[in-house]
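F.,

This is the one I mentioned.
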């Protein structure tokens, strides 16, 4: 009965959202205050109904109701409760429903904000309701999460995909979908701004706040996905340039460009047209990512579905949403952005260059991601665009971006001597580090370290007494970028690795440590059994024990699928990493041994960047109360 209730609520919520959007739009057209004002109760009711429908699906998971096909396909009785809860978004139907719920919740939260411009809110809510209703209709038409297995109800479920049974995948999808829902809000704000025909402070401030929150969630989502790949997949890397990884990275680059463009638009009157275009385009990237993940046209360990019909339906919905929005942009953008522009300073020119650099990086990643799809479509042959393509352009772009940011910070500090000193120290330290170490590519190592140090030092210069800085949040965010750059440079240029056969008692030197296998033991858990190794990490100089790692090769009971759970010791300056591969003989295993300098700095930098976003929101809140 509960699944039927959930389906009824999903139908009710979708119909309410679609009809509510139509009624509010009609009210706006007729200048009918009563119909226009229905956006608030309609938005709140739709959000409550979508959330209640989701609660019914959660109830089905937690009660092991295998009469629901989605539950039977993604859970079983042996699954731990926390993973049953997370199995909600473990595949296509539930993850899509989660996104719809979050769009509706974002709309409800926006409706409860302190924005006093009711016409702007009505336009925005009409767009948000339409989006929630359209994707709710998509669920009902192609991906019903409450579809029954009747009359043949399985006794046991198939289980959640083993690669998703990890704490990273409990957090990664909902955080990322919060970012995607935030992109919908930015899109709706841009459409509402275009409909007004005027560049007004309220919509722009609202768009800025929405973009900041969205950027925080997208940063967190990308970082959690990277962390999951590093800890769970056993391959030892943290970014593979997989199409689905790119599908979340492209919007992050776009929103980063949007935030900087909004700063110039608010304070200098510049890049207004680009701000609106980016707000629309970032949501278009989000829809593209949804298509990539769910159409089956691109293969990935992250992909949810492989049904081309769903892909076609998503393309139709995307066209219904985006084509009118960009037509509106073409007709209204000049009227919205005709205000006088102030003269640009040197800092503004550099920031403008940074916005276009971020946009170019976004376009380059997009091209590398979709080019194989178009090549296969038109040439009839498969083509793979791998990490070398992306690394070839993205690493130099990141270095150039760091140099630009550092120049802006140096100009703001107002001291040529200080800027020159920061530059000399950065170059000198980077040169010394490269000369005293053995990187894979000396030039790239030097450029990465020098650019990151330049970024850090120019940010720190603004904190000195008597000097100016861009702003506390910007300083923190740029410091986070520098920390992540140092981490990425450390791993890519200085990682030491060995892939070896190991049996109990054997050891292998890697860098300045020795990995020693002290024994293999059996592991039996609720959902899997396996073999784990006790690996001692010894200092090569005196053979003292530095730490112990416990990598495991798991076999999941329900599916027989094997996974490698890496043994990792996270350190301030380097990580020790061990993962077990296939069993080669009764006593030998294939083992990956790695020493990864500064690996944890990659995610530490992301945390610092998120903290910067929180600082922006807190400062905006304080100013609004003043």
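My design for it:
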């Amino acid at each position: 009965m509960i699944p039927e209730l959930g389906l009824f609520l999903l139908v009710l919520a979708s119909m309410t959202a679609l009809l509510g959007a139509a009624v509010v739009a009609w009210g706006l057209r007729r200048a009918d205050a009563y119909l226009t004002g229905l956006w608030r109760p309609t938005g709140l009711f739709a959000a409550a109904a979508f959330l209640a429908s989701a609660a019914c699906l959660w109830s089905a998971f937690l009660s092991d109701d295998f009469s629901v096909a989605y539950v039977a396909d993604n859970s079983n009785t042996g699954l731990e409760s926390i993973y049953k809860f997370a199995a909600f978004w473990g595949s296509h139907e539930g993850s899509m429903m989660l996104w719809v719920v979050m769009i509706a919740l974002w709309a409800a939260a926006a409706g409860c904000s302190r924005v006093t411009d009711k016409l702007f809110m009505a336009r925005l809510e009409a767009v948000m309701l339409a989006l929630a209703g359209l994707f709710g209709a998509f669920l009902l038409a192609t991906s019903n999460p409450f579809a029954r297995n009747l009359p043949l109800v399985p006794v046991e479920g198939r289980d959640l995909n083993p690669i998703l049974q990890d704490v990273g995948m409990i957090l990664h999808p909902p955080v990322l979908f919060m970012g995607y829902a935030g992109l919908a809000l930015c899109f709706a704000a841009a459409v509402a701004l275009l409909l007004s025909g005027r560049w007004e402070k309220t919509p722009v401030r609202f768009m800025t706040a929405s973009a900041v929150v969205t950027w925080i969630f997208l940063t967190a989502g990308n970082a959690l996905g990277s962390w999951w790949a590093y800890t769970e997949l056993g391959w030892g890397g943290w970014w593979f340039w997989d199409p689905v990884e790119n599908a979340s990275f492209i919007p992050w680059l776009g929103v980063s460009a949007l935030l900087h463009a909004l700063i110039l638009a608010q304070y200098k009157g510049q890049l207004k047209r680009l701000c609106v275009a980016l707000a629309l385009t970032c949501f278009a990237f989000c829809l593209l990512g949804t298509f990539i993940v769910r159409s089956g046209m691109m293969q990935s360990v992250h992909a949810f579905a492989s049904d081309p019909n769903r892909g076609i339906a998503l393309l139709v919905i995307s066209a219904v949403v985006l084509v009118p929005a960009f037509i509106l942009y073409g007709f209204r953008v000049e009227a919205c952005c005709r205000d006088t522009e102030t003269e640009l300073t040197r800092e503004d020119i550099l920031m403008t260059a940074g916005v276009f650099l971020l946009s170019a990086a976004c376009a380059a990643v997009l091209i590398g991601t979709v080019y194989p799809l178009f090549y296969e479509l038109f040439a009839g042959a498969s083509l793979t665009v791998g990490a070398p393509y992306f690394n070839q352009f993205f690493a130099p772009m990141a270095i150039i971006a760091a140099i630009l940011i550092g120049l802006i910070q140096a100009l703001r500090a107002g001291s040529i001597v200080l800027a020159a000193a920061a530059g000399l120290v950065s170059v000198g330290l980077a040169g010394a580090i490269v000369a005293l170490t053995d990187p894979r590519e000396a030039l790239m190592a030097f450029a990465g370290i020098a650019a990151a140090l330049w970024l850090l030092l120019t940010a720190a210069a603004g904190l000195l007494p008597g000097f100016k800085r861009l702003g506390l949040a910007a300083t923190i965010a740029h410091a986070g970028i520098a920390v992540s750059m140092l981490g990425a440079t450390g791993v890519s240029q200085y990682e030491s690795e060995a892939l070896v056969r190991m049996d109990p008692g054997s050891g292998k030197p890697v860098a300045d440590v020795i990995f020693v296998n002290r024994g293999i033991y059996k592991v039996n858990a609720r959902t899997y059994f396996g073999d784990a190794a006790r690996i001692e990490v010894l200092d090569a100089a005196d053979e003292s024990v530095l730490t112990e790692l416990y990598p495991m090769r798991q076999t999941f009971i329900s599916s027989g699928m094997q996974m490698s759970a890496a043994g990792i010791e996270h350190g301030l300056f380097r990580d020790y990493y061990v993962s077990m591969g296939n069993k080669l003989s009764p006593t030998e295993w294939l083992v990956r041994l790695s020493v990864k300098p500064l690996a944890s700095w990659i995610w530490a930098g992301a945390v610092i960047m998120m903290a910067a976003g929180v600082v922006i929101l807190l400062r905006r809140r304080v100013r609004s109360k003043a």
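Residues 386-494 form one domain.

Talk soon.
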